[in-house]
Design a protein that fits this description.
Elements lengths: L1 H22 L2 E7 L2 E6 L5 E6 L6 E7 L2 E8 L8 E6 L8 E6 L7 H5 L2 H5 L1 E3 L21 E12 L2 E9 L9 E7 L6 E7 L6 E10 L10 E9 L3 E8 L7 E2 L12 E9 L4 E8 L4 E7 L6 E6 L9 E11 L6 E10 L8 E9 L4 E3 L7 E2 L7 E5 L9 E5 L14 E2 L6 E7 L5 E7 L12 E8 L4 E4 L8 E8 L5 E7 L5 E7 L4 E5 L15 E5 L5 E8 L3 E6 L5 E5 L8 E6 L4 E10 L5
Parallel strand pairs: 9-28
Antiparallel strand pairs: 1-2, 2-7, 3-6, 3-8, 4-5, 4-7, 9-10, 10-11, 11-12, 13-14, 14-15, 15-16, 17-18, 18-19, 19-20, 21-22, 22-23, 23-24, 23-25, 26-27, 27-29, 29-30, 31-42, 32-41, 33-38, 33-42, 34-35, 34-41, 35-36, 36-37, 38-39, 39-40
The structure holds beta-D-fructofuranose (FRU).
Length: 607
């Protein structure tokens, strides 16, 4: 008996030993084939959750004194751990926290379930390494430190800071757990990561929306309160309000939520102050109706539907999402026109998601489009420019937009891990009169981007190029991130090629077909393309008439943004070259062309 007692003691001791080694500070109870309870006994800053992207989502209920405080969906690793994400325990300091986990793995019994890879690596830790470790992570485009990002949200300017919130999953690099991540910047190019601004509540996930600065305290939350209106996405999509009295760092949800409801799928409210009618205007996407609904309000809380726009207008294939409405000057005139931005998915010009816009008039109640319904205008002619909206309250009546630099066709599968997706460069908008008499958007990279130019510019001057490529070097530092500016005089050449390439033979080929008046970008051989059948593509933009063309290119590890010299087209495409591109080469199909003022600016951020 004594022997049995000793063996039992020894076994108990070993068990405790294993428990301590694997799960210091935690008590893990495997309760069933799909059920595990983890008690946090000695908390540290984070509980690190092991993720496997191919695993099904587990439902993780965070309990505080055994009451459910929040529910997360987490792809807890079954077969292998792809990466870890931190769950922040600091906000629960002094409280008794446990995680009640229902895995989605359909294991047959508890013994098999215990083998799941996550249980070996789930740990408490005081640190989480979020350094910029991935080779495709952009240097000067905004990305979350870890986790998934889609649409830009709630952008406003106040007291010298640009605020950028975004659709964020802190618990994995795929879409889910939608919250508003938050970053701030003095100059739109150097970003500081702030605490998450809004998290899901009983009304649903926090989908896209906008923020305004309530200068006259119309809502009664206080002068200069920052007011956010966003979509609460639960069983239905309804619109909710939250406000911040500390410049947008923390938000309080409004007790009267929701503030707008509908029996139709409606989302992504975007608001602004309309001076002429002395009212707030909100534009809401009736996604499946393919309409934008326009509301007005005196106080941001009570909204009246004024009108709708869209039936039969523009691209109609996909759902309508993420609207914006703004008044812009028409270049070279003293006129202004109103622009209604309408992001659609799918139905973009090269498949998947894209941003279209309409130009017209707005009288405080109704938007009237100046073009025929069949006219479709695109903000950007690449594949990776979506959910584009503008900053509210920007200085000098500036209208600056930013996009999510991805496409719903493959956003969840691009070859990054610790984070997924970046924003485009911030861009300033104006209108210009096109050769066909229509008004179009001119999109210019925000001038602040020039402050990224670092080190000696590589000035290649002017030279001729024919059918043989004339090749120039790109910078080596920072994996070659750079801005390239050039002017082209095509002379006798109708087709001019601009090729970015590396020693592995990977290349992105841009071309001007001046006969057809188009600029294109071919990324079919750009590097890694096989993660999605929809990724390899040639995108095409109309370019201005004539032999003389000016171009600006921005390269940042996994993206190329091309802008016509005066912003008359923009084209944004992701590329994943295995090694950075090291050369830019110019050639023609026939005849010679002249390249003028080719300058390559190495870029860097202020670290
Ligand atoms: C657009 C969108 C929005 C929605 C959000 C959800 O990309 O579908 O309509 O609010 O993403 O993440």
């Amino acid at each position: 008996n004594i022997m049995k007692y000793r063996v039992t003691l020894l076994l108990m001791f070993m068990n405790i030993g294993i428990c301590l080694a694997q799960h210091a500070g935690l008590k893990v109870h495997h309760l069933g084939a799909n059920h595990t309870l983890i008690q946090v006994l000695e908390p540290q800053k984070y509980l690190l959750l092991p993720i496997e992207e191919a695993a099904p989502e587990a439902t993780v209920n965070v309990l505080v004194n055994n009451q459910c405080d929040q529910t997360l969906n987490v792809r807890l690793a079954m077969n292998r751990v792809d990466y870890l994400v931190p769950f922040n325990l600091e906000e629960y300091k002094g409280k008794c926290v446990s995680f009640n986990i229902h895995t989605g793995n359909s294991r047959a019994n508890v013994r098999d379930a215990m083998e799941d890879a996550c249980w070996g690596e789930i740990v408490l830790s005081n640190t989480y390494h979020a350094e910029n470790t991935e080779k495709f992570r952009p240097l000067y485009h905004h990305t979350p430190l870890w986790g998934w990002m889609n649409d830009p949200n709630g952008m406003f300017y106040k007291d010298g800071l640009y605020h950028l919130c975004y659709q964020y999953n802190p618990y994995g690099s795929m879409w889910g757990n939608l919250s508003w991540g938050h970053s701030t910047s003095k100059d739109l190019v150097n970003w500081k990561h702030e605490p998450v601004a809004l998290v899901p509540d009983g009304l649903g996930l926090v989908f896209s929306g906008s923020c305004v600065v309530d200068k006259n305290n119309t809502a009664g939350f206080g002068k200069d309160a920052v007011v956010a209106i966003y979509t609460s996405a639960g069983a239905s999509q309804i619109q909710s309000l939250a406000y911040s009295l500390d410049n947008g760092i923390t938000f309080q949800t409004y007790e009267g939520n929701p503030i707008i409801t509908s029996d139709k799928e409606c989302r992504d409210p975007n608001m602004f102050w309309h001076e002429k009618s002395g009212k707030w205007i909100l534009i809401l996407a009736a996604a499946l109706e393919k309409e934008m609904w326009i509301y007005s309000s005196p106080d941001l809380k009570n909204w009246t539907k004024e009108s709708s726009f869209g039936k039969g207008y523009g691209a109609q294939e996909g759902v309508w999402e993420c609207p914006d409405l703004m008044e812009l000057p028409v270049r070279g005139t003293d006129k202004t026109k109103w622009v209604l931005i309408c992001n659609i998915n799918p139905g973009g010009p090269f498949g998947g998601s894209a941003a279209q816009y309409f130009v017209g008039d707005f009288d405080g109640k109704t938007f009237t489009c100046n073009s025929n319904p069949e006219v479709t205008k695109w903000m950007d002619y690449g594949k990776d420019h979506y959910a584009t909206v503008s900053w509210s309250n920007a200085p000098k009546n500036r209208h600056t937009v930013i996009a999510w630099m991805s496409n719903w066709q493959y956003a969840n599968n691009v070859p990054t891990q610790q984070y997924r997706s970046a924003n485009s460069l911030p861009r300033d908008l104006e209108l210009f009169q096109g050769e066909d008499g229509e008004c179009y958007l001119a999109t210019t990279p925000a001038s602040e981007i020039e402050s990224l130019r670092a080190g000696a510019a590589m000035k290649y001057g002017s030279f001729s190029a024919g059918t043989r490529k004339v090749s120039k070097k790109l910078p080596i530092v920072n994996s070659g991130v750079c801005e390239i500016a050039l002017e082209l005089n095509a002379r006798s050449a109708e087709m001019v090629y601009i090729t970015l390439a590396n020693a592995k033979g990977e290349e992105t080929v841009m071309s001007y077909d001046l006969g057809k008046q188009v600029f294109s970008m071919d990324r079919t051989k750009s590097g890694l393309t096989e993660f999605s059948k929809d990724f390899p593509a040639v995108t095409v933009a109309p370019c201005p008439k004539g032999n003389k063309q000016a171009l600006r290119l921005f390269i940042d590890r996994c993206s190329i943004e091309a802008f016509e010299g005066e912003g008359r087209f923009a084209m944004t495409n992701l590329v994943f070259p295995d090694e950075p591109y090291t050369t830019i080469a110019i050639s023609t199909a026939k005849g010679t062309c002249k390249v003028n003022n080719l300058i390559v600016y190495p870029l860097n951020v202020n670290k």
